[in-house]
Amino acid sequence: MKFEDLLLEIGGFGRFQILILFILCLPRINLPMHFLLHNFLAATPSHHCAIPHQAAFVNLTMEEVLLISIPREPDGTFRSCEMFSQPQFQLLLNSSLQPENNSIIQHCQHGWVYDHSQFTSTISTQWDLVCEQRGLNQATATFFFIGVTMGAVVFGYLSDRFGRKAMLLLSLVCSVVFGMLSAASVSYSMLVITRTLTGVALSGVSLIVLPLGMEWVDIQHRTFSGVLTSIFWSIGNMLLAMVAYLVREWHWLLVAVTGPCLLSIVCLWWVPESARWLIANGKVKQAHRHLLRCARMNGRKDFAEDVPLTTYAQRIVLQWEHKKPGKSYSYISLFRTPVLRKISLCSGAVWFGVAFSYYGMSLNLTGFGLNMYLSQFVFGIIEIPAKMVMYVLVNRVGRRQSQAWALILTGLCIGTNVIIPKPFTSLRSVVAIMGKGFSEAAFTTVFLYTSELYPTVLRQNGMGYTSFVARLGGALAPLVFLLDEVWRSLPEVTYCGVAVCCGSVAFLLPETLNVRLPEGIEDME
């Protein structure tokens, strides 16, 4: 007997499953508020070198002081990272005659002055992470995703070893603790350490929420459940724009996006452990209790009272044990057999491309001519119709084709914006929004697709491995922005190339549309 057969008997998608999915959507809302927080936490407002006061400046306006103290860019704006070694008073007579002697230009010597009209404070203004320290600013996002990467490995193993619910609770509690410590950071080092640990904790939430919900849902509603859960990521995207607009001080912004984890911890009380995991690990009595609750909530009272569910569960256990006598699985198991090896290598490449291009677009809110708060909000809105379209496509054309073309089109949209001239802001914004929609469609599909590719005994290990690879992509994505010093369009070209190549790899994966979830490795081989 397959577990899906048992689910159909007790109700594969009733009030019980809807309640579970709704509760699990609460932590899902919180994830993008941390994953994309770098846009506002580390935002760099316009700035220029601080000019020390001199007696010669007494009768000059601030504009005139800047004019004689800071060189200008070709477009007439003041440079952010350089100043004159001595005031150039001749510029008061003719400001268009910028000195050609670079020897009188030096880096900022006395700190910076920031424009606080948009942000009260960010980590950039707090610790002067600009100019030569710009790399440290981008590195805060990289350190966070390094934490997420480590968490993917840790929680992928632990949730298969100790259960989905217990590890989800642990990750939520740790997210609150380290999130609040981040808000209380008194140095850049402390912020980096606490944000990295926050990433580790949130990785558990990201990794466990979807499989825990999916393992309670029947085959027919699997796609709907995956898309429904992912919509709440988009809602979190939009909420981040609203919260960041209202809270302009970085300490309190961290508190505001961490607080909702407390609600998720409370609501998790009503979420049961995965009966599929319990049965796979021989914990039949606990599985029976949850299955009985499911049957009653879904209106299958006669079945719950008359049919001994324990017998069904034991038969499933015996079947699984016959397939895998005394075996324990690890990440190495993902590469031991030919079919699993191919799936693991290809899905890893797809996940890398999806995350790399998604965060490449999501962390570049100012590159398309829109206000950054509006960009964040619009990027969140466009994800919802993208998910709706993918809900239809993955059931009509299949997971594989949907995954491949969504990622390839993401790369083509990014590449198109390299060609479109900067003054065409409206056109660039439209193409960027389309690219963001394709990017989210690729992300929505890859979560669903991957959870169907791996057998139950390795599902969380598989999700942990692919999430690890994805977070490597997420960690590298912010650093790629620094390549604009080599060539202005090099970051976009890089995102485009990786997305198209990784999207093409998806064609090598097997189709899983309307296929039973494999229970053991033998089901796949």
TrEMBL record:
Determine if Transmembrane is one of this entry's keywords: yes
**Domain named Major facilitator superfamily (MFS) profile: which ranges?**
87-513
Q: Which Gene3D superfamilies match?
A: MFS general substrate transporter like domains
Q: Which InterPro entries match?
A: MFS_dom, MFS_sugar_transport-like, MFS_trans_sf
Task: Supply the alphabetized keyword list.
Answer: Cell membrane, Ion transport, Membrane, Transmembrane, Transmembrane helix, Transport
**Membrane-crossing residue ranges in chain numbering:** 139-159, 166-186, 192-212, 224-246, 252-271, 343-361, 373-393
The reaction(s) this protein catalyses: GDP(in) = GDP(out); prostaglandin E2(out) = prostaglandin E2(in); 2-oxoglutarate(in) = 2-oxoglutarate(out); orotate(out) + L-glutamate(in) = orotate(in) + L-glutamate(out)
Q: Name one Pfam family in it.
A: Sugar_tr
List the GO molecular function terms.
organic anion transmembrane transporter activity; prostaglandin transmembrane transporter activity
Q: Which GO terms describe its cellular component?
A: apical plasma membrane; basolateral plasma membrane
Please indicate if the UniProt record lists Ribonucleoprotein as a keyword: no
Localization recorded for this chain is: Apical cell membrane; Basolateral cell membrane
Q: Which GO terms describe its biological process?
A: monoatomic ion transport
What kind of membrane protein is this, topologically?
A: Multi-pass membrane protein
Q: What is its main location?
A: membrane
Q: Which family does it belong to?
A: Belongs to the major facilitator (TC 2.A.1) superfamily. Organic cation transporter (TC 2.A.1.19) family.
Question: Which PANTHER family does the record cross-reference, listed alphabetically?
Answer: SOLUTE CARRIER FAMILY 22 MEMBER
**What name does this protein carry?**
Solute carrier family 22 member 7
